[in-house]
Amino acid sequence: MKTIPTMGRHVSAKGIAFCSLLLGALAYSQATPNDFGHSGRVGSHKPRPGSEFFTLVVLPDTQGYADTRLRETQHHWPGLGDQRTCFFKQTEWIKKNQTKRNIVMVAHVGDITQTDYDEEWKIADAAFRTIDNQVPYLLVSGNHDMGYSPRHRKTGYSRKSQFSTYFKPERFTGNPLYNPHFGRQKDLHFFEDGKIENYFLYFESAGIKFLILALEFKPRDEALDWANNVVARHPDHRAIVVTHGYLTRQPGQLSEGDSYAIKGNPGKFIWEKFVSRHKNIFLVLSGHAMENRLTSKGMHGNTVHQVQADYWYWDLPEIKAGSGYLRIMTFHPGKNKLEVQTYSPVLDKYLNRPSSRFSLPFAMKKEKD
């Protein structure tokens, strides 16, 4: 077992200008609870009759499914062919199983595309249009979704990205499906005007109010300041944080350094500067570096589960750069348990090893002060 020293105690291992930012922060700080639509039923989801569970589906890195420029998966597996159908089958499965699984939210953990290329974003756009008016979803940016340098064949070379071009905030704020998931002032849900790299949504199920927050890849200090403000303003919401790079490939290890040109915070500092400071954060979801997980104690003694999944390049031959595997995270309020399964709608198979199928304790009622 491995312990990682941070500001929290780990109990088990496994361009917006400055003025615009200042004005945005001021508007946020002056907002009242009613500005966020706190009526006691914000983001409410009505479960199917007799349902005693609800589900959050996690889509791991889909970069290989959208890769029409480099075709890296085909170099590794000659004859594999175009994999975009994996992406399409994932969202089709979500739509088909929304009622059966009581799916209340979908979270993509980043690396939506391979090289921030128009053709790749069009594939992602088509995949998500399947559920645009059916199932609410939240997206985060990965290193492959920004700053691709053809000369250096590197991603994360800058923060320039087409993410917010294809997934504009208006795609969600203008969609009636999302009305329960925003407060009365929808613009307050976004860190930067016109950009979707950092934003949050509400949802409610089993009488529990949740806040799910998207953080950019290697979040800047300003983004973490914004996120701290958001979570602090919602003490009555159980908070889920979604970001791309957080853990490494080593069991239970937070990321600390990397070779990406952009400046920002790795997992260790995301934990120290943000996640560990809030007693209502209970879950962090990430991708980028294979399967991994870590359970830690925050500064207030609260338990935080940090769960990572990325199936692009892997150790099992049948996966072949993803093969449509996704995460099904089922909340069981009556059992105080969060069940995690890994399933491929493409292969119609589950991964049943301990790193792919497991349960996490989660007290469904708000932890007492």
List keywords for this structure.
alpha/beta; 21% strand; single chain; Purple Acid Phosphatase, chain A, domain 2; 369 residues; seven-stranded mixed sheet
In short:
This protein is of the alpha/beta class. The protein contains nine helices and 14 strands.
Order of helices and strands: EHEHHHEHEHHEEHEHEEEEEEE
CATH topology group = Purple Acid Phosphatase, chain A, domain 2
> Cα-atom Rg, whole angstroms?
19 Å
Q: Report the CATH superfamily.
A: Metallo-dependent phosphatases
The CATH class label is Alpha Beta
The low-confidence runs, each spanning 5 or more residues with pLDDT under 50, are 1-45
Classify the beta-strand content into a percent band: 15-25%
Helical content, roughly?
Answer: 10-25%
* Strand adjacency order, main sheet: 1-9-10-8-7-6-5
pLDDT averaged residue by residue? 87
Number of helices: 9
Name of the CATH architecture? 4-Layer Sandwich
Q: What's the main sheet like?
A: 7 strands, mixed
Q: Which secondary-structure class do the elements indicate? A: alpha/beta
Describe this structure in words.
This protein has helices at about 20-30, 70-75, 85-95, 100, 120-130, 165, 170-175, 220-230, 265-275; strands spanning about 10, 55-60, 105-110, 135-140, 200-205, 210-215, 240, 280-285, 290-295, 305-310, 325-330, 335-345, 350, 360. The protein is an alpha/beta fold. It has a single domain (about 40-360), classed as Metallo-dependent phosphatases (Purple Acid Phosphatase, chain A, domain 2), CATH 3.60.21. The strands form two sheets. A seven-stranded mixed beta sheet has the order 1-9-10-8-7-6-5, with helices on one face. It is globular. The protein starts with 8 loop residues before the first strand and ends in an 8-residue tail after the last strand. The relative contact order is 0.17.
